[in-house]
Task: inverse folding
């Protein structure tokens, strides 16, 4: 009985590991910066980007990664994705948010 | 989508302007029209009144100089259009109104009083066009002039750069009144096609507007936003962007950042200008003018 319990425990641990939640990377969009503005990921490793905009509506547009969302103020938005190729992919705020909007951007670096 | 070969430029015209023939597919009915249907209008864009900074140390006189240059055209155009970003953005609503008022006063010096305006995101995106409308009225509309149907589309009052379902429905209804071979000119601020979304040079639902325009054989779009000339085709629809009157921007994707091209004291106003659009039977002839004669 004891041995059976141990085996079940190991199996459950293995299943838990296989179903491990992707890492959540939190990005805050505020006037007029993304924090952080540089994110490093790995090819094939799934992640969730959690975007928040504490002040006004913002946008997150990374055309090279086919990621685009609006970020309503105060409501976190989650984008789940798995990078499939290495490279540096720029992102910008594509919701006009004020006098520094045009300089508001960052880069996602995807390592092999 | 096809870029228009710049070798299509025909010749260097007077005033140092370049001429570009924007061909429409001709048809017998239009070819038979009289010279009474020929006219020209002037497009100015991206004046960014209120801008201060190194990219244009002469910002306070650039727009008045452009007004003087337009007033010197002979003959005068039938009308004048400004395709957005009349003022430079400010987070202060009172300052926004001050800039709009100053802009309105400066362009009141234009000899031609038929002036058609539309906002850019700098004018309208922070208050959904509220201040702009107080000064200049509706942000989208249509009008007819000597056989050409003009449509001004607003793709900036929504800060997310959408035309929006309501305006698209209005566009559909407006186009329904036009024959398939009607001559249609669309005036707007942002490119309707995804020119370079990495630099926010796109309209999120622009493809829907293009889809509505597609059944019409003779459509030409004039826009601003990118502070340089650019000529492009989506199927049979031509898209021509205009130079700015504040500072030029680099070619799409030509450098890592979308930063203004530096002011050159040896060549002030380089890269700035306005254009003349001459409507002739089955084509538009574009002539580019500098702010000041070389």
Result:
């Amino acid at each position: 009985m004891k041995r059976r319990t141990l085996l079940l425990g190991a199996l459950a641990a293995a299943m838990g590991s296989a179903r491990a939640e992707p890492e959540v990377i939190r990005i805050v969009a505020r006037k007029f910066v993304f924090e952080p503005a540089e994110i490093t990921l790995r090819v094939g490793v799934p992640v969730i980007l959690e975007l928040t905009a504490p002040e006004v509506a913002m946008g997150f547009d990374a055309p090279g990664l086919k990621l685009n969302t609006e970020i309503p103020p105060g409501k976190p938005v989650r984008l789940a994705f798995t990078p499939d190729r290495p490279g540096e992919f720029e992102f910008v705020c594509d919701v006009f948010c004020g006098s520094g909007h045009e300089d508001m951007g960052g880069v996602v670096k995807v390592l092999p | 989508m096809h870029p228009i070969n710049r070798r299509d430029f025909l010749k260097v015209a007077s005033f140092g302007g370049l001429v570009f023939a924007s061909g429409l597919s001709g048809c017998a009915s239009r070819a038979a029209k009289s010279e009474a249907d020929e006219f020209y209008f002037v497009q100015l864009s991206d004046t960014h009144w209120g801008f201060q900074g190194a990219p244009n140390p002469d910002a306070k006189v650039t727009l008045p100089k452009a007004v003087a240059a337009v007033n010197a055209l002979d003959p005068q155009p039938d009308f004048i259009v400004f395709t957005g970003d009349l003022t430079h953005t400010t987070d202060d609503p009172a300052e926004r109104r001050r800039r709009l008022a100053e802009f309105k006063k400066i362009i009141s010096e234009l000899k031609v009083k038929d002036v058609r305006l539309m906002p850019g995101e700098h004018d309208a995106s922070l208050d959904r066009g509220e201040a702009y409308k107080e000064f200049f009225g509706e942000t989208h509309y249509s009008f007819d002039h000597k056989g050409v149907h003009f449509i001004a589309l607003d793709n900036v009052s929504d800060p997310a750069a959408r035309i929006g379902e309501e305006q698209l429905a209005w566009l559909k209804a407006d186009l329904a009144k036009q024959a398939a071979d009607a001559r249609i000119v669309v005036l707007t601020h942002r490119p309707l096609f995804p020119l370079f979304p990495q630099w926010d040079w796109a309209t999120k639902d622009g493809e829907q507007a293009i889809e509505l325009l597609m059944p019409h054989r003779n459509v030409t779009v004039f826009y601003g936003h990118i502070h340089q000339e650019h000529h492009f085709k989506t199927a049979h629809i031509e898209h021509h962007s205009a130079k700015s009157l504040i500072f030029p921007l680099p070619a799409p994707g030509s450098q890592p950042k979308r930063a203004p091209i530096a002011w050159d004291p040896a060549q002030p106003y380089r890269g700035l200008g306005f254009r003349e659009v001459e409507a002739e039977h089955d084509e538009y002839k574009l002539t580019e003018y500098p702010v000041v004669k070389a």
Remarks:
- The CA atoms of residues 60 and 80 of chain A lie 14 Å apart.
